[in-house]
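Our preliminary data section would be incomplete without showing what the modeling component actually yields. Below, a chain of 325 amino acids is followed by its predicted structure, encoded as tokens that our downstream tools consume directly.
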Amino acid sequence: MQFDIQQRISQPVTQDPLANLLHTLQLDSVFYTRSSLSAPWGVAMPPIENSMMFHLIVEGEVLLEINQQSYHLQAGDFVILPFGQGHIIKDAKNSPAVPLHDLPIKNITPRYETLIYGGGGAQCELICGAVFFTNPLVNKLISLLPVVLQISQNNPQAQQTIQQLIQILGAEAQNIALGGEAIITRLADILVIHAIRQYIDEQQNIGWLKAMKDKRIGRALQLIHQAPDTQWTLISLANEVGMSRTAFSQRFKLLVGETPLHYISQWRMSLAHQRLSMTSDSILEIGLDLGYQSESAFCRAFKKLNGHSPSQVRRQKRIEISNSH
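Predicted structure:
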């Protein structure tokens, strides 16, 4: 079977803003776990804020419980939990679940670990993980996903790429060789991205996705995303996309669900929050880069929209980093 990963993930960039966004999906890993479990077994997965968790069932069967709902999974199933919610995976309904951090996890690399656990009965092999996306715009895509996104290798509607990735990942997990953990993490990243792409591609005619596909409003959104420091006005955006001020404002709100100026403010604050959390850039530098004329103007706008100041975000991030060590 020929499988060129680079060819699969390198699609041509188009003038379609949504297609371009999907093309640039990138993620960072929190952790990956290869689990060898034997019945009876149960694992209580903790919530992980701002992350997306997933499970690939390589062998056996799994009962997933989340939000008082149960999902029966079998070998070849791939499931994504987009909102990082706590949940339980186990072999059967009556099996007790042990918190993940209380189990005998073996760290192979800083982000890759293995787990062997259970009562010695029926075997189950899993690849589990948690990832987060580096582009704040992707949060809008994630918000459109269901609480549980389930894809089966045997589902005829699943893209061929996804079916092949599931098959290769399963084979790699069952026969770990030198460097196998690196292969698993890379393939898992690609599988998550393709699964999201497939779902979004099937839902393009609703809400924000429909706005991104709209010739004029999609172009306006693209301009806002690419140049958040520009002093956009209703008139300047309307002129850019060839519409009257009134028609543009009405269509933008109809498709996006908010006014253009409010959307611009929200987008700037998303970028600001990302840089405050992930960089050491000064508050003044961030504010100027996002089109504000002074640090005080940026801080006022940030607090008005978020309810807290930029410096509070910085302090909270330092506390989180300190507690993680």
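Residues 1-14 have pLDDT under 50 and may be disordered. The CA atoms of residues 153 and 163 lie 5 Å apart. Preliminary results of this kind motivate Aim 1 of the renewal.
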